[in-house]
């Protein structure tokens, strides 16, 4: 089994983001068959189709980082029962121009967390709606919604052994998903 490169998109820009901490923990717990890299989405200008003839350097760099990836891992909080605007913008930038999406056919997984009890369930499922349209096969099981994330980290260190085991299982399942659904 060869190593698969995975683009990780984190839907929070906050410096001490729990979702960024979660993404880093998922990277740490991933099987060695996955090489994961967080792709920075903070500098992406808002998508505007009028700019497509002369895409910004940031759009081009983002697309060039995602295009060769063998899979995608989305880690997101929830804003107003949906994904944060910055993540939606990254999806729009990567999926355009129409017919040239850098996401199409790449296997993906979605992890979501919040300080509230529902674990960003709404954002997780709203993101999955977009992935269906983008022709991105999203792993269905195990699902990963983590509520009360603020109580599970001490600084950047995960303090819950049971969550660590769940995250390890999630990443092992994701590695198998990537192998079963090779990007074409």
Question: How would you describe this protein?
Answer:
A five-stranded parallel beta sheet has the order 2-1-3-4-5, with helices on both faces. It has a two-stranded antiparallel ribbon with strand order 6-7. It has a single domain, classed as 3-Layer(aba) Sandwich (Rossmann fold), CATH 3.40.50.360. β6 and β7 form a beta hairpin. With 184 residues, the protein is an alpha/beta fold. The two termini are 17 Å apart. Helix content is 36%, strand content 17%. The chain is globular and about 50 Å long.
CATH architecture: 3-Layer(aba) Sandwich
- What is the tally of beta strands? 7
Mean pLDDT: 96
Spatial order of the strands forming the largest sheet? 2-1-3-4-5
Distance between the termini: 17 Å
SSE class: alpha/beta
State which percent range the strand residues make up. Answer: 15-25%
Provide a quick synopsis of the model:
This protein is α/β, with parallel strands linked by helices.
Output the keywords.
17% strand, alpha/beta, 184 residues
Q: Which helices and strands, and how do they pair?
A:
Elements: E1 4-10, H1 18-29, E2 34-38, H2 57-66, E3 71-76, H3 85-95, E4 108-113, H4 121-133, E5 144-146, E6 153-154, E7 157-158, H5 161-180
Parallel strand pairs: 1-2, 1-3, 3-4, 4-5
Antiparallel strand pairs: 6-7
Helix pairs in contact: 1-5
